Model the fold of this input.
Amino acid sequence: MKRIPELMLMGISIFLGFTFWGAGMAKLFHEHQFFGWIGPVWLIEELEPYGLGLYGKFIALSQICIGYMLVTTRYKLLGSIMMIPMIGNILMVTISLDWRGTPFVLAFLLLLDVILLWQYRDFFRPLIDEGKSRFDIKSRFIRTRNGHLVWLAGLGLQLSAIQASYWNWMVACLIVLLGLVLSGLSFRVDRKLMSDVDLKIP
Done:
């Protein structure tokens, strides 16, 4: 029974991550040829007449980075915290442009994000109560510097795939897949390094 909440947490993280990562990639990929289920992929073009094209690109890049944190499940806490202001920004754009229906979708996604954050509620006490120096924070899997670097390399490949999409769509998709695999390997790097440390401890 203890594995069910963890599996649900993982599923919510991957779903939210794919939703926003895919939405951001679709906005910036050549001719918007990327997989995703929410839009609009033409947000940047929609905002350009108002002089907000750069803001649209910023939203797309935010969606990619924050969504990638969650879809790879390495930075669920950081990604879910950053998702709240991101969803708020997108919500204000949709309300300002009078897009009906989109706010309800965003409200559902925000609810999922709150569920994700609730699993990490033990981290929020130090942020709120600054007067105490020690808090009861649950121990979780240790991440290593090399693991972080491997994950960042995967994120870098996602961003480079955007440029590659203007040259060859198939190559761009292969770069995306390579980046996902590389970021997934960051967990293996962590385990390998931590096991090596355990072996060295007398």
Q: What stands out?
A: The chain has a mean pLDDT of 86. The CA atoms of residues 26 and 34 lie 5 Å apart. The two ends are 36 Å apart (CA to CA). The chain is about 70% helix and 0% strand.
